[in-house]
Amino acid sequence: MKIREITNSPGYYITEYGEVYNKDNKKLKFFINDTGYKRLRLPSIKHDGRWVNQTVHLIVAAEFLKVGKYCNDTSKVIDHKDTNKLNNHYSNLELVTSKENTNRAHDKGL
Fold first, then answer.
1. What's 66's DSSP letter?
2. pLDDT tens digit sequence for 34-80
3. How far apart are CA 65 and CA 74, in angstroms?
4. pLDDT attached to residue 71
5. Sign of the C-alpha dihedral, residues 71, 77, 81, 86?
6. Which of 19, 55, 95, 107 is the 20 to 30 Å CA partner of 62?
7. How far apart (Å, rounded) are the C-alpha atoms in residues 98 and 52?
8. Contact present, 108 and 83 (Cβ < 8 Å)
9. Full-prediction pTM beyond 0.85?
């Protein structure tokens, strides 16, 4: 299984499946937000060490695909290829334009 340290939260690690652990190997709990995405609270360097809610699929994309919310191109979004918002394996995530994302959702009846 592939594991990466989370860039903006040193001491926290994410697996290729989107499971997050602290340095003591304790698995962090997530919650599902009102739009159906997994989120969790992590300390963030960008927020001076304060705890912030972060979306799991964006962390996976940032660490394994080197894209995501830290990407400079704001016209792009991360798409779940299989439309399952809870499947955050990096192979299921893809950087697409907002228009491509909308077209895919329409084509899949979402």
1. S
2. 999 999 999 988 888 888 899 999 999 999 998 755 455 667 889 99
3. 16
4. 57
5. positive
6. 107
7. 25
8. yes
9. yes
